[in-house]
Design brief:
Layout lengths: L38 H8 L4 H10 L12 H28 L4 H6 L8
Helix pairs in contact: 2-3
The structure holds iron/sulfur cluster.
C-alpha cells in the first residue's frame, strides 16, 4: 500500500521551537521561584506565534514545571486530563479509520507514535 495514512498524526516536530518568542530570553523567567510571578514569561508568550504547539508539547510530555504556551504549572494541571482524553480519542479514531481503510498495524504504527502490542 503506497498511500500515506494522513489521518494518523505524525509525531510532532520540534521545528516550532525555531519560531519561539522566548528564544534568547532569560530562561529563569519561565521557571520562577516558588511564589514568584510568571507574568513576565506570560507577556512573552502572549506575542508568541507558536503558543499552541508549545502548550501541546508540555501537555503531551507531562512537563510539570515552568511556563509553556503561556500557562504555568497550575494552569496546565487543570488542562492535562482533558487534553489526554481528547488526544487518545483522536488517536483511536485515526487508527480505526486507517484500519478500516485496509492499512496494517505495522503501516499505521510506522506513521504514528502508536505501536501495535506484541
Ligand atoms: S509559548 Fe511561551 S514558552 Fe512557548 S515557545 Fe512561545 S514564548 Fe516560549
Amino acid at each position: 500500500m503506497s498511500a500515506e495514512v494522513r489521518a494518523v498524526p505524525a509525531p510532532s516536530s520540534p521545528r516550532w521551537q525555531e519560531r519561539a518568542a522566548c528564544r534568547g530570553a532569560d530562561p529563569e523567567l519561565f521557571f520562577p521561584e516558588r511564589g514568584g510571578s510568571a507574568d513576565p514569561a506570560r507577556r512573552i508568550c502572549a506575542r508568541c506565534p507558536v503558543r499552541q504547539p508549545c502548550l501541546e508539547y508540555a501537555l503531551g510530555h507531562g512537563i510539570r514545571y515552568g511556563v509553556w504556551g503561556g500557562l504555568a504549572e497550575r494552569d496546565r494541571r487543570e488542562l492535562r486530563a482533558s487534553y489526554l482524553t481528547a488526544t487518545r480519542q483522536q488517536r483511536d479514531e485515526a487508527i480505526a479509520a486507517a484500519a478500516a481503510a485496509g492499512y496494517t498495524k505495522a503501516a499505521i504504527g510506522a506513521r504514528s507514535a502508536w505501536r501495535p502490542r506484541r
